[in-house]
Amino acid sequence: MPDELPEIRTRWSEVSGGIDAATAYQRRFDALVERGVDIHGEARFVHELLPAPIRVLDAGCGTGRVASELTRLGHDVVGVDADGDMIEVARERDDVTRFVRADLASLELRGQTFDVVLMAGNVVPYLADGTLVDVLRHLRGHLTPEGVLVAGWSLPGHEPAAAAPVSWQTYERATFAAGLSLVRRYAGWDAQAWPGDGSYCLALHRRR
Predict the structure, then answer these.
(1) CA–CA separation, 139 vs 107, rounded Å?
(2) Does an H or E element contain 24, and which?
(3) Which regions of the chain does DSSP assign to beta strands (E)?
(4) How far apart (Å, rounded) are the C-alpha atoms in residues 107 and 123?
(5) Fewest CB atoms within 10 A around its CB: which of 12, 70, 142, 190?
(6) pTM for this entry
């Protein structure tokens, strides 16, 4: 897939700031690691969900924080993001994982399927308005028959700057429209019991 694509507009586009911002974004995580902070909860959840090696699509991969850790854990990972600057940083840091710039609302990876399709890091509320069902349909199309779509995001009242408020009910209606059925919900990446304090939703769905 070529990198020279038309600009892909999402809610994230409104707060992203080019290559310098993408580099600074990654450096913030690097600083957390240097302080001993665990930043790999999402990758650990997927790794414990299904043992390596499995195929994982990291949808909205950013600078590759989760994708690269999953690769290190022995999985076959493809990272996809609409932000070309984020993808550039990811490729500079990791020459093993495959990173692709693409719009999740029209994603087509030439018939590839995955055991887990992952949306972490508040991808859901940063999607372009009105595209959630389209995104879910395209991600569903990349699941194996027994594959799992795993999505985690901050619920209304706790969403980050410029993100849309997406309730778990709104997401559930969208998954139904996209041909997905609920497996389970958690309140966080450490598998906290749902609904927790109501600030976060981690939802697992399969093809219906």
Answers:
(1) 8
(2) helix 18-34
(3) 55-59, 76-81, 98-101, 114-119, 143-154, 180-186, 200-207
(4) 15
(5) 190
(6) 0.91
Residues in the chain: 208
Which residue matches tokens 């901050």? 154
pLDDT tens sequence across 80-115: 999 999 999 999 999 999 999 999 999 999 889 999
What tokens does 85 get?
């600057």
Q: Mind listing the pLDDT tens digit for each residue in 70-87?
A: 999 999 999 999 999 999
Dihedral, CA of residue 38, residue 75, residue 151 and residue 78, to nearest 10: 110
Question: Is it the case that residue 1 has pLDDT exceeding 80?
Answer: no
Judge whether 26 and 92 are in contact, CB under 8 Å. no
- Alpha-carbon distances, residue 91 vs 10, 60, 95, 100, 139 (angstroms): 21, 14, 6, 9, 22
**171 φ/ψ angles, rounded to the nearest 5 degrees:** -65, -40
**For residue 123, what is the DSSP state?**
T
Angstrom CA distances, 162 to 2, 86, 182, stand at 29, 18, 28
Neighbouring C-alpha atoms within 13 Å toward the C-beta of 193: 0
What region, left, alpha or beta, does residue 18 occupy, with left being phi > 0 and alpha being psi -120 to 50 degrees? left
